[in-house]
Every structure is written in structure tokens, then in C-alpha cells.
Amino acid sequence: MPGGQIKINAFSDNANDGSLQYSLYICNNVSSTYIYFYDFADCFRDIGYALMNFPQQPDDSINFEIGTDDDQSDYYIALQFFCFGEPGKCAIHVVIDNHQPDPDYCRSEFYITAEPDSLNKLGKMLNEWDPKAINEIVWNAEQLLNC
Q: Which of 35, 7, 138, 10 is nearest to 96 (CA)?
């Protein structure tokens, strides 16, 4: 089965604080999730930089979070990048929670497998992305045939 996809769109500045509205779509071809959130133009730069050389050790793990996994924030976005099994196998653990009251509540949790080189490409895209100049990036996971 093919890997997954991450698509991020940036919209206009929010009010006067300089933040942008983003939409985030993530799928693994079995499950998918979609959320809107607000953050600054450089919010993906650090995770992008870290992923450009990931992994460096067989037990490497990188975490990216926006919000908190409780009702203290408007939403929760968590991406954990990690290695598993045989060398050369990596995955992303995706958790998205919209923190909305019932019946609008939605929490999605799933995994995307990907080759390290594919995650390095995602890192380069995120690190170099200027959402004020280019409003959308799309990454398609590449994976080994035996993943």
C-alpha cells in the first residue's frame, strides 16, 4: 500500500499579531484528518531542520506539537517521527484533536510509514517554506516495498 500525504495551506495574516491561518490535511490512505489552526510563518522551520538529517541513530525520535493534549488549548497537533523494526524503516505517529464540544468533537490517530530519505525531503520542504510567498506545500511519503 502506498504511503501517506501531508498537505499544508497557509492563508492570510490573522488580526494584528502576524500569525497565519493554516489548514493541515494528513492521510495514510486508510485514515485521514483535517484541521485549521493559527501560528506564525516560521512554525515549521525547526521541525524541518531536524528532519533534514533524520535519523542519526536507530532509536531517534523527533516530536512536533502545537497546542496541548488537554482542553487548555484550542486544538492539539502532534507528529512524532521515529524509527522502527529493521534499519531504514521510519514512521510518523499522527494525533490531531480539535478540542470541540460534542457533537463537533473529533480526534484522529494513525501512522504513516516512510523511508528516511522521504522524511529528509519533507524536512527540507518545511525548513525552506515561506508560507507568505507560497501558500501550499504537499509531501507524498515514499516507502520501501516491504513496509
A: 35
* Residue 103, preceding peptide bond in cis (omega within 30° of 0): yes
What is the widest separation between alpha-carbon atoms in the chain?
Answer: 49
Using the 8-state DSSP alphabet, how is residue 23 labeled? E
* Phi-psi map region of 127: left, alpha, beta (phi>0 left; psi -120 to 50 alpha): alpha
- Between the alpha carbon of residue 33 and those of residues 13, 28, 146, the distances in Å are 24, 10, 25
The CATH number of the structural domain formed by 5-140 is 3.30.2450
Sheet holding 5-14, edge to edge: 32-39, 19-27, 5-14, 136-140
* The pLDDT of residue 16: 76
Q: Which residues contact 68 (CB under 8 A, 6 or more apart)?
A: 76
DSSP letters spanning 119-133: HHHHHHHHHH--TTT
Amino acid at 27: C
Looking at residue 145, its pLDDT comes to 56
* Domain edges within the chain: 5-140
Q: Which residues contact 58 (CB under 8 A, 6 or more apart)?
A: 83, 87
Give pLDDT tens digits for 71-82: 889 999 999 999
